[in-house]
Amino acid sequence: MGWIKGHKLLFTLMITILILVIVFVVSIFAGPGGNGGASVWSGGLTGIVKAVKENVTGLFSYRALQSQVEELEAENIQLQRKLTEAKLTRDELDELKELSEALNFEYTQKEYTLISADIVTMDGANWTNIFTINRGSEAGIKVGDAVVNGAGLVGRVESVGKKWAKVTALIDEGSSISFKLARDRKQLGIANGDKKGEITGFMMHADSTVSEGDIILTSGLGTYPEGLEVGNVKTVKYNSNTLLKEITVEPAANFKELDKVAVLQ
User: Fold this and answer.
1) Using CA atoms, how far apart are residues 116 and 97, in angstroms rounded to an integer?
2) CA–CA separation, 222 vs 41, rounded Å?
């Protein structure tokens, strides 16, 4: 019964042929004219058989055509998948190019590998201070690696799993960084994150000429590699007790809109 349901047209044709054969045989023995009747029926049967043959041939041709259509549909799906993968690859390359252009200081003179990653969870009281990315030791990421985005420095890797890593942002209260001015790299300073999610610091020399709008870069002393953009100086204030200039810094990275970063290797 299952075969009949799956081959209704073919089964109908077979039954039709069988009925015609039975009618033909009966007509030979019962019909008038003897052989004449057989001749007439023979000619009619020949035409019927021809029509049946054409229908059967058409049936198999239709199935062959249907098979070709299914193959083309499968190929189309594969092509669409390849186009999607190609677009993702192109997007990744564009993003890495953007990162390279944004970090166009000493960074470009050194050989680093950029490992792109997505931010998957935020941790801590201030959700912008600590976050988890979806790449880890399987990609070669290790504790202490610098994390950047297209604008500049984001933070550093604090812990690593096989397919994840936790990143402490530059604006976290526990972060500390040594920096220098982009326009005069002999002028050094120290900066830290604070409870407000900002960056504050001071210049190490009393005669520093730091001013509002100055771009500051990582100095290469301590945790971070040299030449990564940290941000720009927002305010400058002279501290009469320490005899040093204190600054607040606007981070280059927008921590409220982070969704993708890259780890420097």
Assistant:
1) 12
2) 104
| Averaged pLDDT for residues 50-69 | 58
Q: What is the mean pLDDT of residues 160-188?
A: 92
Q: What is the pLDDT of residues 239-260, one digit of tens each?
A: 999 889 999 999 999 888 888 8
Terminal CA-CA length for the chain: 66
Query: What are the percentages of helix, strand and coil residues in the chain, rounded to 5?
Result: 40, 30, 30
- Report the residue count for the chain: 265
Across 59-73, average pLDDT: 64
**What backbone phi and psi angles, to 5 degrees, belong to 241?**
-80, -45
Single-letter amino acid code for the residue at 3: W
Q: Which is more confident, 146 or 48?
A: 146
Q: How many CA atoms lie within 13 A of 80 on its CB side?
A: 6
Place of tokens 């059967």: 56
Within 8 A by CB and 6+ apart from 195, the residues are 173
- Token pair 């015609």 is found at 20
CB atoms within 10 A of CB 169: 26
